[in-house]
Amino acid sequence: MAETVVKIENLVKRYKDLIAVDHLCLDIREGEIFGLLGPNGSGKTTTINCLLSLLDFDKGEIEIFGKKMTPVSYDIKRNIGVVMQNVAVFNELNVRENIDYFCGLYIKDKEKRRQCVDDAIKFVGLEEFTKFFPKKLSGGLLRRLNIACGIAHKPKLIIFDEPTVAVDPQSRNNILEGIQKLNREGATVIYTSHYMEEVEQLCSRIVIMDKGKKIAEGSKEQLKKMIKNTETVEIEISDVPESTMNRLRELPHVYEAGCNENKLEIKCSGGKHNLVRILGVLQDDNLNFGRVYSELPTLNDVFLEITGKELRDKD
């Protein structure tokens, strides 16, 4: 079994009467891309700030690489990279100078640092923009610069907090592919995002938080098995008699059925051949219908059923 890179035990963080993190336990293993999800105010950002020793906390223990994490654990921090949602670069420095500055916080040897900066520039595809200042970069290129500044020193643990917010699809794909490459090269990744498709694509294990607590944990497949809805069938149809609706609701594994705006929606829990049975009822009643869709649950469905909330744009 892979070694534990991050261990959080019984973490509690209070802001006066508000409990932002409530006896949280996390175990992040070497080589994972670990997804941390939660609605607004769930405690994700507070947890990350405690993890980095940017915040004091009321109770608990945090270990990284097998050592207790403290504000002065510089030997640990040298092996951590952070890419936060808000871009943090210097407008007075060009692309290369920005990356060199942040890399220089960890690597003093000039020759080694130069090579690391070159590698980071190549990694994020900014070779043609090294002399550009941040204000001249597009949103996607600026995000890439932000990532390069966070990973240039080749950290073993990288925290990505909403790295693709407000970027174009091409830049988003480049960023996601870059994260996967970093992981293949040995980095353990903690990833937060409000884009569920990214989490499905990237993360090997996911924790869902709400009100400071861990409420679900597992692979995307394991999480999908935790919810009632295992299949949603949608059918384009103009009108469905109530007698037909009653027959549909009585089918095995159907727990919800409704029709509005020329669309029949049926939700099933478990079972096989649900679609065949549903179409059989419509055909028996001589009803004409159009397109038929059958969808398995997504992480969005899991998140909504478990938390009862939608994800927002900011935490």
Describe the structure using short key phrases.
4-stranded antiparallel sheet, 14 strands, 2 domains, 27% strand, Rossmann fold, Alpha-Beta Plaits, elongated, alpha/beta, single chain, 315 residues
Summarize the structure in words.
- The protein has 315 residues and is an alpha/beta fold.
- It has two domains: 4-224, P-loop containing nucleotide triphosphate hydrolases (Rossmann fold), CATH 3.40.50.300; 231-296, Alpha-Beta Plaits (2-Layer Sandwich), CATH 3.30.70.
- The chain is 34% helix and 27% strand.
- It has helices at residues 44-51, 74-77, 95-104, 110-124, 139-151, 169-184, 196-202, 220-224, 242-249, 274-284, 299-307, and strands at 4-15, 18-29, 33-37, 59-64, 67-68, 80-83, 157-161, 188-192, 205-210, 213-218, 231-236, 254-260, 263-268, 292-295.
- Helix 3 runs parallel beside helix 5 and helix 5 (139-151) runs parallel beside helix 6.
Task: Quickly describe the structure.
By secondary structure, the chain is an alpha/beta fold. It is 34% helix and 27% strand.
Under the CATH scheme, which architecture of the largest domain would be assigned? 3-Layer(aba) Sandwich
Determine the CATH topology of the largest domain.
Rossmann fold
Low confidence ranges: none
Class from secondary-structure proportions = alpha/beta
Shape: elongated
Spatial order of the strands forming the largest sheet: 6-7-8-3-9-10
SS field, number of helical segments: 11
